[in-house]
Amino acid sequence: MNQNESLLPLKIAVLTVSDTRTETDDKSGKILVDNLTTTGHLLAEKTIVPDNIYQIRAVVSRWIGDESVQVILTTGGTGVTGRDGTPEAIKPLLDKEIEGFGEIFRMISYQEIKTSTIQSRTLAGVANGTYIFCLPGSSGACQTGWSIIKEQLDSRNRPCNLAQLIPRLTET
User: What is the rounded distance in angstroms from the CA atom of residue 29 to the CA atom of residue 73?
Assistant: First the structure.
């Protein structure tokens, strides 16, 4: 990391997917907001929607269409139950999937929760020049996910980072 350079702050939106959480008790969403702002990034918007594919897709689509939102972080809905639909909501919106994110997330998560990590359908990709990272709903998983994401969203991270590629994401 080159500390002589200044961080390029990114505008990041946070979506909590939950049938039960409110702004008062949304611990995972709060962790993501606290982490991104502490790191020097800007919160574009934060909201909560129920585990409903179409409601998830509606919010994320709006953010993808907003040129000021550069990154979207979601928490929740990545499990295997009948109500978990975040990957199904997001995948059709992606122009490109970033498979390495889920691979690294599960590798790190294995050290923490062993084989239970197979239940996580963590996902990342790019849609209309916007990075999207879908994390599980637990606060521990959000911390694990942020530990990966933060370095790639830091424009000073070397040898490379996702932040520096933002201007090139919509090249044709």
Answer: 9
Look up residue 131 and give its two tokens: 């990075």
CA distance 144 to 72: 16
Under a CB-based contact definition with an 8 Å cutoff, are residues 166 and 128 in contact? no
Location of structure tokens 């409601």: 55
User: Which pLDDT tens digit goes with each residue over 97-135?
Assistant: 999 999 999 999 999 999 999 999 999 999 999 999 999
Which DSSP symbol is given to 125? E
For strands 71-75 and 11-17, give the pairing.
parallel
Q: What is the side-by-side strand order in the sheet with 130-135?
A: 42-49, 11-17, 71-75, 130-135, 123-127, 96-97
Rounded to 5°, the CA angle 59-60-62 comes to 65
Q: What angle do CA 70, 72, 74 make, to 5 degrees?
A: 175
* Chain centre distance of CA 88: 15
Helix (H, G, I), strand (E, B) or coil at 98: coil
46, β-bridge pairs: 14
